[in-house]
Design brief:
The chain is mostly helical. It contains 6 helices and no strands. Helix 2 runs antiparallel to helix 3, helix 3 packs across helix 4 and helix 4 runs antiparallel to helix 5.
């Protein structure tokens, strides 16, 4: 898989290792952009970088969801939950510490915070920890298995370390 298709395309599947690598690269790039760019300058460059990072994040999240045999449209929900939770927590802590609210409102805020936390935890488990669909699914071939080639007797690693390609458990015979 070439890098342009990996980062920009919405079709296909990627495994956990590639998804984690892309997410760490995006986080590092965002941190460098945030620390190095002076505020008030380079707004156009920053806006372009943010749009590109959002596109890459959406594309790789959709492919990771494809690996879990889920529709890529769920990536929209994943991308909305994170900023929504930041806004919600800011409101929650701002109201909790700054304004006297009734017990019912406070309980609703706590229930909302718990629900968002559970949802974010499930998103992390789904994208980073659960293994993809074994074998082919409706979105393509298994990214952890090398294609069978009559020319080569051993599978190619495609730039992924060998220990990430092998699955735990008994070796499939056949």
């Amino acid at each position: 898989m070439d890098y342009a298709r990996l980062l920009l395309g919405f079709n296909g599947r990627i495994n956990r290792a590639r998804y984690l690598a892309v997410q760490l690269a995006l986080l590092t790039f965002w941190l460098v952009l945030w620390l190095k760019s002076p505020f008030g300058q380079w707004e156009v460059l920053q806006a372009g970088a943010v749009i590109a990072m959002l596109w890459i994040n959406a594309a790789t999240t959709a492919k990771r969801l494809h690996d879990r045999n889920r529709s890529g449209w769920w990536a929209i929900a994943v991308l909305i939950v994170n900023p929504l939770s930041y806004v919600y927590y800011a409101l929650f802590f701002g109201l909790y510490f700054g304004v006297d609210v009734s017990a019912a409102r406070e309980m609703l805020l706590v229930m909302g915070a718990v629900a968002l936390s559970v949802l974010q935890t499930w998103i992390v488990i789904e994208l980073f920890f659960l293994i993809g669909t074994d074998g082919r699914n409706r979105f393509g071939a298994d990214p952890t298995r090398a294609p069978k080639s009559p020319i080569m007797s051993h599978p190619q690693s495609f730039g992924v370390p060998d220990f990430l390609l092998h699955r735990a458990g008994p070796v499939a015979r056949g």
